[in-house]
Amino acid sequence: MKRFQWEKRILKPAVFALALAPLLGLLWKAYAGTFSANPIKDVTEETGIWTLRFLLITLAVTPLRSITRWSPAGTFRRMLGLFAFFYGFLHFTTYVYLDQFFAFDEILRDIAKRPFITVGFAAFVLMIPLALTSPNRVVRWIGGKRWKALHRTVYVVALGGVIHYLWLVKADTSRPLLYGTALVILLLFRLWTFLKSRRFSVKAAAGLNANA
Amino acid sequence: MLLRRGGNLKSSEITPELLYVNRRQFIRSASFAGLGLAYEFLLPEFLSSQDRWPRGRKGPFDTDEDPNSYKDITTYNNFYEFGVDKSDPAENSAAFRPKPWTVRVEGEVKKPATYNLEDLVKPYRLEDRIYRMRCVEGWSMVIPWRGFPLADLIRKVEPTSRAKFVAFETLFRPEEMPGQKRSVLQWPYVEGLRMDEALNPLTLLAVGLYGKDLANQNGAPMRLVVPWKYGFKGIKSIVKIRFVQSQPPTTWNISAPEEYGFYSNVNPEVDHPRWSQKSERRIGEFFRRKTLMFNGYADQVASMYSGMDLKRNF
After folding, report:
1. B75: which chain A residues are within 8 Å (Cβ-Cβ)?
2. Class of the B17-305 domain?
3. Model pTM?
4. Where are the domains of chain A?
5. Which of B16, B21, B40, B67 is deepest in the core (most CB within 10 A)?
6. Over pLDDT 90: what percentage of chain B?
7. What ipTM was assigned to the predicted interfaces of this complex?
């Protein structure tokens, strides 16, 4: 008999519901009228910060899995990544619709002239192929190796997200730098595992040579 | 020239917050009662209970646009001394004590002195003025201030002929202004105006808002209001006014000299290096509106800058 997969049956739906909480929070604020005096800015900031948070949470899954050796962690990674895209999409839509009201000439000028918008827009565009290639069928069709290579783009996306945040604040850079530090730690972990595996394979190769 | 030129601007009555909110109901009940009462008649009594300052007369430069609500004005603003988020000033300023308060007037002036705030304000008739306020971040409000022209104070303290600029300083009291415990900006906050800007009849020292004392989060007990400049020029909780010979340093200019100039006049043609200044969101409105040159006060102030390159002197 198959083991009851509580991670998949219970934990995953729970995480899914939890990941919707920021959106529900915004809807609640709209309903209860507890936004600040500038609701459009509230929505922009909230969806933006949750995009960055979900990117970092997604990037934390692999290190967490290898540290805790809890293999089911991997089953959450794709879902969390898709939530990053979801909030990024809401963030972008808020800007285009609520903030600029489809003033495409202004939007294009912003993208061309405002470095923080250029970077944020690029990061959003780079997320689109990652979201589109997430269904299993597409993964099989592309092939695991190429899929993996493509999805390394997420490092660039997260970096873009941090820079976007850093370049838009007026004076207090502490929060963007906090997110930046978290990202650097997550990337260093990957560098470390990469170097470790290479040294291991070099050693192994050297061992083979000695035997020969 | 210090003539009051109010004729080309429409003015509207200042109305207490409660009446703004309940205006329709008020009008209905008043007409039901068959009373032809103009509500000015009711005002002084209504206000006397909550006022530390006597009610002002109507100012000459009022905009006829609808003021933002008292709640919006007091819960959404920048005052980094209480934190960097726009909800912080309202949330973190309860412990701030704007009374007793003294203001030091010094520098190139014939009558330097340290004033109790009450003594400083007493000689002047307070005016209610409904001004537009444009934040450098791209949002704006309409605010009914109460105060007196800075020019009146300047004339009284008699600056010498060497005084070319006026420098202002905010209180530094980190135990009551928790934002000052972090060096996000250089404390104390300092600002400045050229003498002609300081003497312009639009320039106001505000002590009230919506007919009440200035709330802590809005710069109690006294702040500067310069409606044709970006909001950060309106230095809050002033403790020092110094008359000086050369252009004084200003806080945001020290923080980011390429982004915030000494003048910081509202100008839709000169973008902030990182974002456009062509349009703004009026708090309470959905669509962005076009930003006006000098925030719509060009008639009163443009002549002060004729011949100046406003792109260089941003």
Report:
1. 36-37
2. alpha beta
3. 0.84
4. 6-198
5. B67
6. 77
7. 0.85
